[in-house]
Design a protein that fits this description.
With 255 residues, the chain is of the alpha+beta class. The chain contains nine helices and 14 strands.
Length: 255
């Protein structure tokens, strides 16, 4: 691993200023970043820690507001999340392992833009929006609009500071994934479904980003990405199977 400077700003404005300099990258949980640095894929000259910015709060008052530095384990254990958005709690229980969830953060999981992640398709289906802050000010966009492709985001030298999830209400929701090894492995496919007046269905892992579909018929037109977890044809078949299962589970989960 190449040597690097570690900065620990105490305000968002200071963090953004530090990230403007060439070779700087934000550090949240670091679970993916450190692996990429050890592999030599990334060689940042400076890491800007986001730990001192007060972005680790969970607030539930109608909608759910999650600070970007909230760890996955804190979100998993939150009584408010378990009561109002139980699908998030269920999903987190098989997201990687306990050691990773204790360190990885919500903002980091979204910003990494790996299509095999579980939270992006689920939060997209839930209609969640992310608050972004950069040199040019703040903006808020739907979670699905964060992604431009495999490991590519639409961030413009910005930080994710918060995720807001609308009230689930009486809508039924489910997230299912098919793994080829253990239950917490990277998925071959992931399917998130939220049923209501306007059903929202998103697929992932088989596509290069969380992708909204209108139903099973839409799967035929998807560009499927084959990888070590399965061929494109295999994943297309899995998507059809898991979409039906997710719809059934969401119907049974109606509040």
């Amino acid at each position: 691993m190449s040597p690097f400077e570690l900065a620990a700003p105490s305000s968002i404005a200071e963090a953004i200023a530090l990230l403007e300099e060439e070779g700087a990258r934000p550090l949240s949980g670091g679970t993916a970043l450190m692996l990429m640095m050890k592999a030599g894929v990334l060689r940042p000259a400076r890491l800007v820690s986001l730990r001192n910015l007060g972005l680790d709060r969970i607030e539930a008052n109608g909608s759910l507001r999650i600070g970007a530095m909230t760890t996955l384990s804190a979100l998993e254990r939150s009584p408010a999340v378990r009561k109002g958005w139980p699908v998030i709690t269920r999903t987190l229980r098989t997201l990687s392992n306990v050691r990773v969830r204790n360190v990885a953060t919500v903002g980091g999981a979204l910003a990494h833009a790996d299509p095999h992640m579980d939270l992006p398709p689920l939060l997209s289906a839930l209609g969640a929006r992310v608050k972004l802050v950069g040199k040019g000010g703040e903006r808020t966009i739907p979670v699905e609009d964060l992604y431009a492709g495999y490991l590519e985001t639409t961030l413009r030298n910005e930080l994710i500071t918060q995720v807001e999830v609308p009230a689930l209400g009486k809508r039924g929701a489910a997230y299912l994934k098919c793994t080829t090894r253990s239950a917490d492995d990277w998925p071959a496919v992931g399917v998130a479904v939220v049923l209501g007046d306007e059903p929202r269905m998103f697929v992932s892992a088989a596509t290069d980003r969380p992708t909204r579909i209108a139903g099973e018929a839409a799967i035929a037109g998807l560009k499927i990405e084959g990888d070590l977890h399965g061929s494109a044809d295999y994943k297309r078949h899995l998507l059809k199977v898991y979409l039906r299962r997710a719809i059934d589970e969401a119907r049974n989960a109606v509040h």
